[in-house]
Amino acid sequence: MRSSIHIVDVDRLDTWTRYRNGLCDTCMANCCTMPLEVRLTDLVRLGVVDAFEAEHEEERLIARRLQKAGVVERFHQKSGVFTMARRADGDCRYLDAHTRRCTVYAQRPDTCRKHPQVGPRPGHCPYGRRDATR
């Protein structure tokens, strides 16, 4: 008996699945392997940046500190967007490797809160079925 497998390439939007309620329940968290772009308010919510620092320090100096610490991969000064560094395996630093669930869900960045309504293909996600043996 052959089962149908949906192959997903997060970089190929045509392989993405139209989002529907409950889809995340069986997903491998493929969206958590994509670069995560955040703003300073997200970094404060995550506890990476202190609210006092955010209010009194220039974003570029905060970015430099976070890059040295390995928390941020890059900072786009014109847009004020920070790209979070990922783990060596490509996963988001906040994704639990075993459960494939977000470890900071209540504090997650706006990018994650708005997914998949906002993103490279609105209304779609890089859904990949979770292996039952995991």
Characterization of this structure:
It holds the Pfam family CxxCxxCC. It comes from Aquabacterium lacunae. This is YkgJ family cysteine cluster protein. InterPro entries: Puta_zinc/iron-chelating_dom (IPR005358). The protein is α+β, with helices and mostly antiparallel strands and 134 residues long. It has a domain of 92 residues. Helix content is 20%, strand content 11%. The protein has four helices and five strands, in the order E-E-H-H-H-E-E-H-E. The strands form two sheets. A three-stranded antiparallel sheet has the order 2-4-3. A two-stranded antiparallel ribbon has the order 1-5. The N terminus is likely disordered.
Number of strands: 5
Q: What is the global morphology?
A: elongated
| Topology order in helix (H) and strand (E) letters | EEHHHEEHE
Low-confidence runs: 1-6
Helix proportion of residues, in percent?
A: 10-25%
Rg, alpha carbons:
16 Å
Query: What share of the residues does DSSP label as strand, in percent?
Result: 5-15%
Distance between the termini: 21 Å
Average pLDDT figure: 88
What class would the helix/strand composition place it in?
alpha+beta
Walk across the major sheet and give the strand order.
2-4-3
The main pleated sheet reads as:
3 strands, antiparallel
Helical segment count = 4
Briefly, what is this?
The chain has 134 residues and is α+β, with helices and mostly antiparallel strands.
Name a few traits of the molecule.
Puta_zinc/iron-chelating_dom; 134 residues; 3-stranded antiparallel beta sheet; alpha+beta; 20% helix
